[in-house]
Amino acid sequence: MRQVGPTAQKALLLLSGGIALSLARSPAYYARILNKIPLEWKKIERRKLYRAIHQLYRSQLIDYKENRDGSISIILTQEGQKVSLRYKVDDMRIKKPKEWDKKWRVIMFDIPEQYKNLRDSLRRQLRQMGLKELQKSVFVHPYECRNEIDFIIEFYNARRYVRFIEATKVDNELHLRKRFSLG
After folding, report:
1. In this structure, are 77 and 42 located in the same domain?
2. What phi and psi, each to the nearest 5 degrees, are found at residue 16?
3. What does the alpha-carbon distance between residue 92 and residue 112 come to, in Å, rounded to a whole number?
4. Looking at residue 153, what is its pLDDT?
5. Residue 14: its pLDDT value, please?
6. CATH number of domain containing 31
């Protein structure tokens, strides 16, 4: 399946909001989806969005049609729908390779108290993806996860608060190897 950047991933997810509407069972859920989509579009930097849309079009993940009033509608292709479902945030998992490369991926964040909900959501998402907490705002994982972390950071609009480090040594490595069943 094609790799797309974090902004393009977010655009695909937002475009797939129509798919979510068609699967929703209650009017309350419709309202939640419809209210959230415009807010998320506004969070994406315009220049990045235009570049991402151009990339998605070249990759044949989206198409467009010109309307009679001169506006343009962006449409997810079937391939685009598959890719957007692949990046569903709640179902995101980090793939385990056959062999560990002996590197640790360390994710650190310092999110101000006024954004406590963002901090809690990010912490919950990292746990759900299989990362282990070293300290309150420091998580670790033994496998390559840069794309997934970039996507989550972009999705939550938290790039300025989060750092990603690759390390070859951690002082409590034996404990971490045990927690990740690395033998």
Report:
1. yes
2. -80, 0
3. 25
4. 84
5. 67
6. 1.10.10.10
Type of residue numbered 39: L
Report angle CA 156, 52, 145 to the nearest 5 degrees. Answer: 50
Q: Are 127 and 73 in contact (CB under 8 A)?
A: no
The number of residues in the chain equals 183
Residue 79, in any domain of the structure: yes
Q: Which residue has the tokens 């490369």?
A: 101
End-to-end CA distance of the chain: 31
User: What's the mean per-residue pLDDT of the chain?
Assistant: 80
Query: Does residue 174 belong to any structural domain of this protein?
Result: yes
The Cα–Cα gap between 111 and 39 comes to 20
Separation of alpha carbons 158 and 152, rounded Å: 8
Rounded distance, CA 24 to CA 133, Å? Answer: 34
> What pLDDT, on a 0 to 100 scale, did the predictor assign at position 61?
80
Residue-wise pLDDT tens digits, 124-179: 999 999 999 999 999 999 999 998 898 888 777 788 999 999 999 999 999 999 99
* pLDDT score, position 1: 42
C-alpha span between 61 and 124 (Å, rounded):
30
Question: Taking Cα atoms as reference points, which of 58, 47, 38, 39 lies closest to residue 7?
Answer: 47
DSSP line for 1-61: -----HHHHHHHHHHTHHHHHHH--SHHHHHHHHHHHHHHHHHS-HHHHHHHHHHHHHTTS
